[in-house]
Design a protein that fits this description.
The protein has 13 helices and ten strands. The protein is of the alpha/beta class and 345 residues long. It has one domain: TIM Barrel, CATH 3.20.20. The longest helix has 21 residues. The structure holds 1,3-dihydroxyacetonephosphate (13P). 1,3-dihydroxyacetonephosphate binds next to helix 11.
Length: 345
């Protein structure tokens, strides 16, 4: 297989029918916030135990094609001593790795950030590949206000995303390219459409200019939504129509898949929105999920750091994975949520 054919095969496997990605790559700061919400301390062992619970959920591989790990996690092991990447691989789940070093203040751009991590990235990617990773993730962040994001922020982040993507492909890893337009604020869905369009325009220009092979990437974007505090909240139909219109304009058909982030939507909204888009298919690209919070929130709550609640946590995770798998195929219905409450799944 040529290098590109290998990348394409990995990208296609990550968006295989009925499957999507679990983002479990919370940085130490973010996982601490999640653990604070259930009142447990974030230690190396509590983080390991939590991820172990998710990764050993029986049957999750029916719905989960890949898992994005954090640097600490890719080096940790399951309770029986099996390294996490090996455990996932043995279950047919592809291990991935977050490689950016976070969003830092962008010089001369108050309120905006640039994602760092390019220095030494080539070497780190080679190490991660040795550790078992087959794909990677880099997240750029854009806030919406009346005046932001600036063009400067859009293009510097797009440039960095493309540099990262090129290095990943050189190392034989599929880059997940993640430009996230945050939905915090009171903006309308129309404003989200305009900003998401501009950001995607910059990202695909940079990917093209830097010779990234679009057949060997996945795009991980936000959906086009109204701001979380907007006076008028866009419906699932509006979200699906606006998001598809935006992506048809800006995402070349060569890209095998779009795997959405959930970005603070409720679990069920994230599922319903993905379903509404897939119902409108077929599309030029697979439309799937790469959710963090929307796959994990009920599971984290059910587990609550208690070793005797591992099974409850796994049931909750399995249920959300199953619901999102249905949405990824366009066959989700809110009534399916009831099976879980009744103990049916
Ligand atoms: P959320 O689905 O919680 O937004 O997380 C996805 C992710 O990986 C953000 O980088």
């Amino acid at each position: 297989m040529t290098d590109l054919a290998q990348l394409e095969a990995t990208a296609e496997a990550l968006v295989a029918e009925g499957k999507g990605i679990l983002a479990a790559d919370e940085s130490d700061g973010t996982i601490k916030k999640r653990f604070d919400s259930i009142g447990i301390e974030s230690t190396e062992e509590s983080r390991r135990a939590y991820r172990d619970m998710l990764f050993t959920t029986e049957g999750a591989e029916e719905y989960i094609s890949g898992v994005i790990l954090f640097d600490e996690t890719i080096r940790q092991t399951s309770a029986d001593g099996t390294p996490f990447p090996k455990l996932l691989e043995s279950r047919g789940i592809i291990p991935g790795i977050k490689v950016d070093k976070g969003a830092k203040p962008l010089a001369n751009a108050p309120g905006e950030t640039i994602t760092e991590g390019l220095d030494g990235l080539r070497e780190r990617l080679n190490e991660y590949r040795e550790l078992g990773a087959r794909f990677a993730k880099w997240r750029a962040v854009f806030s919406i206000t009346d005046d932001l994001p600036s063009q400067y922020c859009e293009w510097t982040n797009a440039h960095a995303l493309a540099r990262y993507a090129g290095l990943c492909q050189e190392a034989g890893l599929v880059p997940i390219v993640e430009p996230e337009v945050l939905q915090d604020g009171t903006h309308t869905i129309e404003r989200s459409f305009i900003v998401t369009s501009r950001v995607l325009g910059a990202v695909f220009t940079e990917l093209f200019d830097q010779k990234v092979e679009l057949e060997g990437i996945l795009l991980k974007p936000n959906m086009v939504l109204s701001g979380y505090d907007a006076p008028h909240r866009a419906s699932a139909d509006e979200v699906a129509d606006s998001t598809l219109r935006c992506f048809r304009r800006h995402v070349p058909a060569a890209v095998p898949g779009i795997v959405f982030l959930s970005g603070g939507q409720s679990d069920e909204d994230a599922t319903a929105h993905l379903n509404a888009m897939n119902v409108r298919g077929p599309h030029p690209w697979e439309l799937s999920f790469s959710y963090g919070r929307a796959l994990q929130a009920p599971s984290l709550k059910a587990w609550a750091g208690q070793s005797d609640q591992v099974e409850a946590g796994q049931r909750a995770f399995y249920h959300r994975a199953k619901m999102n798998s249905a949405a990824r195929t366009g066959v989700y219905a809110p009534e399916m949520e009831r099976d879980f409450v009744a103990g049916g799944t």
